[in-house]
Amino acid sequence: MPDATPDTSTVLPALPVLSAQAERLIELGVHETAGLSADEIRTFAEARAGDDGALLAVHPDRAPASALTPLLRRDGRPGFVVTDMPDVDDFAPCGIELPDAPLYTVTGLDRGDRMANWSPQEALSALTEERRTPLLLSEGIHWLL
Prior knowledge:
Mean pLDDT: 89
Number of helices: 6
Number of domains: 1
Low-confidence stretches: 1-9
Oligomer: single chain
Number of strands: 4
Order of helices and strands: HHHEHEEEHH
Largest sheet: 2 strands, antiparallel
């Protein structure tokens, strides 16, 4: 008998190369928010050319989620952080140490569609078993940008 669970997997488009991601962040002014020059972001991306599928991220200490969220757009409207969530920038990494650098890359991205409707603890247990880590909120925003 076939599995009655619907296939919710989604084929995601490949991420742009790091140099294109760098230009997008520069276009949005993320480098200024992070206190970096455009050349610093370009140089970082160029040094990692060939890291296909990697996501370029700015350390959340330099560009917190609350600063990145307004750069998101849906139907021409900017993103926002709701007023009852003033601690959004206090969300800490879970089970990972971030690089001690203003810029880094994230590899092996997976949106986790199969975990829809799972509790955070269920998802974290599954990720741990798979030797994976959850995305930071700011990394997810970088992915959308």
